[in-house]
């Protein structure tokens, strides 16, 4: 493990021209992406391995990162997906008995360029004030590149708006996880960046979980004779995922029960005929308060999204695409953002946050039960028809 005090120089350059010098952390080199901040004080391994962070440089607002190391039991996917990593004080030792290696080594092994020793509070305040922006980390020899050249590289990087990143994170072939609970039947999961904890939760509710590539067609979904369809979280702009929206409309037309989380919520919104928009700096962390309007209960929830659905906040409204009545089921209490949708005339609902939340909190885990109950009710109605 590289000592923070002897590491090579590094600099974080934002597209507004601001420069934040520090020390190299992880792999050496250059990386660019959208700079976002995550407020979680725990669960950095789950954050790093969340495919939804593809294309983004993640800044941790918690000052001390890495003391529990990395292990082989908690990854949410097959690799670290962040484009870069920004921390203030990396731990110099690993002190957790479950650790298999240090965070620094894991970043290096996966080629993730990071930076430490920067004022993460100052950078977070800048992003909150001016919005998420492109940035670049230049470490080792790249830190000596001319400042104007570094800024040019950052400003020529693609913006997140308009990007479709599903192909970069999705599986290439079908992967099946058998049910571990009382069996309901096959579930088609469109992998837009699905997390392992989601698969485990669905299997525990009695689904044989068929994880399908993001290129799956309606015929391929029908071929497994699913009892329901699930859209996962994932990176990118929902407005750039027209094929996934069209596929979802075919699913809804077939009358299949549907549940979507995060990116899946945005795609359900677009399938219903609603718009989506980019948030100024997004919601990322494990402490976001959300109101479940059905119960009046406030949940503390895990989030990772930079886009949201544009929908009427009060009362039921008609789906512009002809799927009956719809209502906003959940609202974010920090900024009144739509955090969930529920179709009233077809078996479909979604939430903008992460009910699997492997690193916690688990307030929203009941949503998997709600999905299971909806599917069971739909199956019973079909059998009695």
From TrEMBL:
Q: Where is the Carbamoyl-phosphate synthase small subunit N-terminal domain?
A: 8-138
Which keywords appear in this protein's UniProt record, sorted alphabetically?
Amino-acid biosynthesis, Arginine biosynthesis, ATP-binding, Glutamine amidotransferase, Ligase, Nucleotide-binding, Pyrimidine biosynthesis
Keyword ATP-binding included in the entry's annotation = yes
Q: Which reaction does it catalyse?
A: hydrogencarbonate + L-glutamine + 2 ATP + H2O = carbamoyl phosphate + L-glutamate + 2 ADP + phosphate + 2 H(+); L-glutamine + H2O = L-glutamate + NH4(+)
Looking up Pfam families in the UniProt record yields: CPSase_sm_chain, GATase
Q: What does this protein do?
A: Small subunit of the glutamine-dependent carbamoyl phosphate synthetase (CPSase). CPSase catalyzes the formation of carbamoyl phosphate from the ammonia moiety of glutamine, carbonate, and phosphate donated by ATP, constituting the first step of 2 biosynthetic pathways, one leading to arginine and/or urea and the other to pyrimidine nucleotides. The small subunit (glutamine amidotransferase) binds and cleaves glutamine to supply the large subunit with the substrate ammonia.
Classification via HAMAP family:
CPSase_S_chain
Task: Give the multimer and partner information.
Answer: Composed of two chains; the small (or glutamine) chain promotes the hydrolysis of glutamine to ammonia, which is used by the large (or ammonia) chain to synthesize carbamoyl phosphate. Tetramer of heterodimers (alpha,beta)4.
Q: What is this protein called?
A: Carbamoyl phosphate synthase small chain
What is the organism of origin for this protein?
A: Microbacterium awajiense
Which gene underlies this protein? carA
């Amino acid at each position: 493990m590289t000592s923070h005090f002897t590491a090579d120089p590094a600099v974080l350059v934002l597209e507004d021209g601001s420069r934040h010098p520090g020390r190299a952390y992880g792999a050496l080199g250059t990386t660019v992406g959208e700079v976002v901040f995550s407020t979680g004080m725990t669960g950095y391994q789950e954050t790093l391995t969340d495919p939804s962070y593809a294309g983004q440089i993640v800044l941790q607002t918690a000052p001390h990162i890495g003391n529990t190391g990395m292990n082989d039991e908690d990854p949410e996917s097959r690799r670290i997906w962040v484009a870069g990593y920004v921390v203030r004080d990396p731990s110099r030792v690993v002190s957790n008995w479950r650790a298999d290696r240090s965070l620094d080594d894991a970043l290096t092994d996966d080629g993730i360029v990071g930076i430490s020793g920067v004022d993460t509070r100052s950078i977070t305040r800048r992003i909150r004030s001016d919005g998420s922006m492109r940035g670049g980390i230049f470490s080792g020899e790249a830190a000596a590149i001319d400042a104007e050249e570094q800024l040019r590289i950052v400003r020529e990087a693609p913006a997140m708006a308009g990007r479709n990143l599903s192909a970069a994170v999705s599986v290439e072939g079908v992967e099946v996880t058998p049910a571990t609970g009382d069996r309901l039947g096959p579930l088609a999961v469109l992998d837009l960046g699905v997390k392992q904890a989601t698969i485990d939760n669905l299997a525990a509710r009695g689904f044989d979980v068929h994880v399908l590539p993001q290129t799956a067609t309606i015929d391929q979904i029908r071929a497994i004779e699913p009892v329901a369809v699930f859209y996962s979280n994932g990176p990118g702009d929902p407005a750039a995922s027209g094929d996934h929206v069209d596929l979802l409309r075919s699913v809804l037309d077939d009358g299949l029960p549907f549940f979507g989380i995060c990116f899946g919520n945005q795609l359900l919104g677009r399938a219903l005929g609603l718009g989506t928009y980019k948030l100024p700096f997004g919601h990322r962390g494990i402490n976001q308060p959300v109101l479940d309007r059905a119960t009046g209960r406030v949940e503390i929830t895990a989030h990772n999204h930079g886009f949201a659905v544009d929908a009427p906040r009060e009362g039921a409204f008609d789906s512009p695409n002809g799927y009956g009545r719809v209502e906003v089921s959940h609202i974010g209490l920090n900024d009144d953002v739509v955090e969930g949708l529920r179709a009233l005339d077809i078996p479909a609902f979604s939430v903008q946050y992460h009910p699997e939340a492997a690193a916690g909190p688990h307030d929203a885990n009941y949503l998997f039960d709600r999905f299971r109950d909806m599917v069971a009710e739909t199956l019973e109605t079909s059998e009695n028809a």
